[in-house]
Amino acid sequence: MISVKNIYKNFGDLRVLKGVSCEIEKGEKIVIIGPSGSGKSTFLRCMNLLEEPTYGEVWVDDDLVTPVDPYLHFDVIRASRTYAEKMLAARQANPEKSEEALDSEIIWEIKEKDLLKKHEGGAYNALIKQIERENSLNINLARQRIGMVFQQFNLFNNLTILDNITLAPMKLKGLSKAQAADKAYALLERIGLKDKAAAFPQQLSGGQKQRVAIIRALAMDPEIMLFDEPTSALDPEMVGEVLDVMKELADSGMTMVLVTHEMGFAREVGTRLLFMDDGQIVEEQPPKEFFANPKTARAQDFLSKVL
Amino acid sequence: MNLDKKIEVFKKSLMKGTKQKGYQRVLQGLKNTATIAVLGLLIGIVIGTLIAIVKVIPKRGWISKTLDKIVTVYVAFFRGTPMVVQLLLSYYVLFPLLGIKMSSLAVSIVVFGLNSGAYVSEIMRSGLLSVDPGQMEAGRALGLGYGMTMWKIIVPQAVKNILPTLGNEFITLIKETSVVSFVGAVDLYSVFNYIGSSNYEFMVPYLCMAIIYIVLVLIISGLVKLMERSLRASDKR
Q1: What domains does chain B contain, in order, with CATH numbers?
Q2: What is the least distance, in Å, from the CA of A60 to any CA of chain B?
Q3: Which of A104, A229, A283, B131 could be stapled to A151 by a disulfide with Cβ–Cβ 3.0 to 4.6 Å?
């Protein structure tokens, strides 16, 4: 569904993600936990490019949505002028070494020292262009397949609940007003808020807003849903109603990626858990095993604080 | 002269005049003041909107970066110099050099428009920036484009912040029109000044002038308050 390849994210001098990779398969419910500042929200937001990774690639199915990262394609590195120069020098210096050994050494060196910064010549550019031509997809099209739910709900304050839900399907999927409204009412029915269709977001409680935000994303028929701490901004008594909707969604087979502090929910619903710390994925396990016996010291420390 | 007499003199001079009677001059001045302020604001809104767009859109290519530099200089100039200076520069330096012949009233309107554009751009920019960034993110996350999200989500919310402030800008413009007599345009100030100097008696005319300004401003600020209230009524809680 989504595959994230070796992404780095810097905010100025602050390095938030330091080489994170993840393959998300259809039907998985991935839970991302970790201490605050560990980069888990940034990681999630990189999946639909709300944050653009500094390095690395994000693929949605077979479509590349970030610019090509030359370091992830050995052919591209090999087509570079730097590689050619290094190879020539290395062959003369170490004639006894095999071609493969030299090749991997040089590729490693170029990657490690970030040597592809300068203009790299025709063959290199042609390869990059070719990869882009064959794989690149406009991010707006990819986002239509990726639903997202935010911590702060982010319902459109100037639109009614109904318009919040129908806007994107009408503009992007060409649904008529009536079709979109039918769909919206069906979804509102599902979360028991049909009577709020004409209300404005300010008139709803936090829990109601978040449930609407979930179905607003669902109205686009996404293939995968991203949740960025969906219950963190809620009053405690409203957490349950939102988790119920998410549970139902999970049971219906939706592919989900969830950043959360709700450990109970993570254990119950998650099929795979990523524990992040300091911009990296430190541990990756099924949630039940992770909570029963975390392997790394950092995970043990974290769990001892939150459980 | 006692006050009664002064009022008597003033009343007389309102009725005097060969080509134009005194009160007709006053009406003329009032009309010009209103024209300069209204047209100035309209031009200002157009220019301000364009500048705000340049300022707010993400800067990627060299075109948007260059445009951004240009409008930054523009705003710095018009906010950094007094309106009088801008008027004098335009009327006596810039327009003659460019070979443009315009009446002093027309020049005043243009300069007020250019000046107000700089201020309005800041009003609009801060109005747009005051909308929660989460709104843009939510739109983009659904797959809506930048322009579409701006138009459907951000702008309607920003307008609520922008409109009342625009009213205040209008009030500022009305008061500032009193400087157009520097280039010979006839406005409220210059007609009362004319009446005063023709009788060597300024007390009553200037008092009258002040009252007219204050009444104008009170009316407009009343309208702005009404508008604010009706805008706030729409975000019912």
Answers
A1: 23-191 (1.10.3720.10)
A2: 14
A3: A229
